[in-house]
């Protein structure tokens, strides 16, 4: 008798449909050299989902479930984990990764499974360029946005630039876009250096730059594109490039990396985010909440992760749910939504998020242990002609 009741109960439970839920996979490099970026990205994603759902973590009554997977910054692992997220976990949408190299390996998986991948924060142009497919959307900025905003900040007639970058997609795409953007300003690139991602000794690269730039007349800058450790700015600055008339320049970075900027007051560039720059209700909430929970300000990729989370909620609401990928794509193409940086817009042609960038000048402030990027001017969506590269 008891066995009959148990079997009947089991059958009843099996016949009862499970509560609908929205499954989001965060596939990102939790461990490895870019671990700090990854933590910021995940914290921001969760804050974005929280803010956009008024703290309920539900969309139209359906709970949000976030599944975390660690790529370890390895392309083959990232590719396998994304397939696992779509196939085994039945994730409706995936977010990530940190590394551009890993992102490029993951793009075909989204196309194979016909599920969305929101790229955040990997930067390489080729992600929404030659390697793009229609299931890819990117909330993070791309190399062209970095490059064009920095060209606006640094370029001009008579300016000569050398570049130093890491020898992979992030660095090479960044330099290519920067060179193209500089042409419009009248500046020229005289020398390029590419070094391995784990480089810590920049002596040889710096000497080649000094030799190439030493006899050139006029204003000279060394523009550094870098992610992770190694501190190329501080180490090259210690070699006194000013004896060759060369000024160091770079874009924005996470707070930990800005400690090297303290040695370079007055340095200019363009940045994606610094918590004191944007003035809008979303960023005010982010800054206040992050200080309350972590005792620190939100960082570069916290804002990016939050932008991705808010985009997901907006898209699912517009599409009437997370199940229909085609409805999500239709909802997201041309979609505008609010972020800590203000309004972003997905460009229909390549699904790249168009967004404001910020021309900054570095200041040394008594209460900060890093060089503070103080706003010179906003470089708005309409101020940058971002090429469509696919």
From TrEMBL:
SUPFAM superfamilies: Periplasmic binding protein-like I. Residues 21-363 form the Leucine-binding protein domain. Residues 1-19 form the signal peptide. The keyword Transport applies. InterPro entries: BCAA_transport, Leu-bd, Peripla_BP_I. The keyword rRNA processing does not apply. It holds the Pfam family Peripla_BP_6. This is Substrate-binding domain-containing protein. It comes from Nitratireductor aquimarinus.
């Amino acid at each position: 008798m008891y066995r009959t009741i148990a079997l009947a109960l089991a059958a009843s439970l099996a016949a009862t449909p499970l509560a609908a839920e929205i499954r989001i996979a965060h596939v990102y490099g939790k461990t490895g050299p870019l671990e700090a970026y990854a933590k910021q990205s995940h914290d921001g994603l969760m804050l974005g989902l929280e803010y956009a759902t008024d703290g309920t973590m539900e969309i139209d009554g359906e709970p949000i479930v976030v599944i975390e997977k660690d790529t370890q910054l390895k392309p083959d692992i990232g590719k396998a984990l994304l397939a696992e997220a779509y196939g085994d976990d039945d994730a409706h949408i995936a977010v990530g990764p940190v590394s551009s190299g890993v992102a490029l390996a993951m793009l075909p998986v989204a196309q194979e499974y016909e599920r969305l991948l929101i790229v955040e924060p990997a930067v390489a142009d080729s992600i929404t360029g030659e390697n793009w497919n229609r299931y890819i959307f990117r909330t993070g900025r791309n190399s062209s946005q970095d490059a064009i905003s920095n060209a606006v900040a640094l370029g001009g007639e008579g300016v000569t630039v050398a570049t130093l970058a890491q020898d992979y997609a992030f660095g090479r795409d960044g330099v290519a876009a920067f060179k193209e953007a500089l042409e419009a300003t009248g500046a020229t690139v005289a020398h390029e250096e590419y070094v391995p991602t784990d480089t810590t000794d920049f002596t040889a690269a710096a000497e080649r730059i000094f030799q190439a730039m030493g006899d050139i007349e006029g204003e000279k800058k060394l523009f550094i594109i870098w992610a992770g450790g190694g501190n190329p700015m501080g180490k090259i600055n210690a070699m006194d490039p000013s004896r060759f008339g060369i000024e160091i320049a770079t874009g924005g970075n996470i707070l930990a990396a800005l400690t090297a900027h303290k040695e370079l007051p007055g340095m200019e560039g363009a940045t994606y985010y610094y918590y004191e720059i944007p003035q809008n209700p979303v960023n005010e909430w982010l800054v206040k909440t992050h200080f309350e929970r972590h005792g620190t300000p939100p960082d570069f990729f916290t804002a990016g992760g939050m932008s991705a989370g808010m985009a997901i909620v907006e898209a699912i609401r517009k599409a009437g749910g997370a199940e229909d990928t085609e409805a999500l794509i239709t909802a997201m193409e041309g979609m505008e939504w609010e972020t800590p940086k203000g309004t972003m817009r997905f460009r229909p042609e390549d699904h790249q998020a168009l967004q404001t960038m910020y021309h900054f000048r570095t200041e040394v402030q008594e209460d900060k242990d890093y060089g503070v990027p103080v706003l010179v001017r906003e470089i708005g969506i309409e101020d940058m002609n971002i090429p469509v590269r696919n």
